[in-house]
Amino acid sequence: MKHVPCALTIAGTDPSGGAGIQADLKTFQELKCYGMAVITSAVAQNTTGVKDVHHLPLGFLEKQLQSISEDMPVHALKTGMVAQKDMMNVIADWIPKIDAYYVMDPVMIAQSGDSLSEEESREVLRNQLLPLTSLVTPNIPEAEEITGKRIKTEKDMKEAAEAIVKNFGAGAALVKGGHKKGTAVDYLFDGNEIYTFESERIQTKNTHGTGCTYSAAITAYLARGYSLPEAVKQAKHFVTEAIRHSFDLGHGSGPTNHFAAREEVSNKWM
Ligand SMILES: Nc1ncnc2c1ncn2[C@@H]1O[C@H](COP(=O)(O)OP(=O)(O)OP(=O)(O)O)[C@@H](O)[C@H]1O
Ligand SMILES: Cc1ncc(COP(=O)(O)O)c(N)n1
Question: Is residue 190 within 8 Å of 183, Cβ to Cβ?
């Protein structure tokens, strides 16, 4: 049988299907990866916000991870919502046991403003998880939280990407400009150079789960064997099209459209 690219997400859930594990699996599927999922927290949420969170017991998180590593290949994995420091420690102990690219989406606060991670977990994220990453994908507030420095300009974004690699030991850092005005520009520092990924800003309120979809698409392209800059370039195209064709569903910030995104990018990579 042909080599099957295998991608894993370790994240929280979104029953309304726009973010978290659900968005990740849709992305893996559209980008022709075999998708696997380990759940950290069950989240009652929809396009309008988070209603409740139920963290899975630590021992159960460990068993889910073990179920993967004792049986399945993983070529690339991502983490999304990992709310508690003890969960981070479990994941940090497990990742070195497998040989896979690791993309961290350092999910802290949902677009709705609801917190998705405990304050005290930030130090473990910085000290234990960041040094294990192939890539971390903070938005501007998350990059500020990691570096402890305000980001106001595009120069600040590039400096934050460099600092996250040089001072915090990430393999590479992609600082995303979804939260700034003007074009949707992201900066990648891979330890050697800065790459720029830019698209027009699409006028829509339907951007629920864009960060999840973007990091899952990068993970999928890495699992498929793309180099890091090429994986980010293709994933940026995918997320831009997912936003352009986003669904006007729900009463809040609607979800992005994974299958339209795949149709738009497909003739380039299939
Ligand atoms: N309105 C938009 N038009 C085009 N691209 C966008 C828009 N909003 C965000 N993006 C892009 O989507 C990607 C995700 O960025 P963003 O900064 O929104 O991440 P995030 O805040 O982690 O996402 P989330 O909203 O899921 O928390 C980035 O490439 C960003 O530039
Ligand atoms: C389980 C989970 N993970 C991540 C997000 C962030 O997505 P957004 O910022 O678009 O709400 C979310 N809402 N839920």
Answer: no
The domain containing residue 234 runs over which residues?
Answer: 6-263
pLDDT tens profile 132-163: 999 999 999 999 999 999 999 999 999 999 99
How many other CB atoms are found less than 10 A from the CB of residue 198?
14
ipTM: 0.95
Q: Which residues pair with 255 in a beta bridge?
A: 208
Return the HEC string of 218-236: HHHHHHCCCCHHHHHHHHH
Residue 183 lies in a domain: yes
Report the number of distinct structural domains present in the chain.
1
User: Any idea what the CATH number is for the domain that residue 177 is in?
Assistant: 3.40.1190.20
Residue 269 lies in a domain: no
pLDDT, one tens digit per residue, over 23-71 is: 999 999 999 999 999 999 999 999 999 999 999 999 999 999 999 999 9
Tell whether 138 is covered by a domain. yes
- Asked whether residue 26 is domain-assigned, the answer is yes
Spacing, Cα 43 to ligand 2 middle (Å): 10
Residue 210 Cα: closest atom of ligand 1 = 26
**pTM over the 0.90 mark:** yes
Residues with CB under 6 A from ligand 2: 11-14, 19-20, 43, 45, 80-81, 107, 110-112, 116, 208-209, 211-212
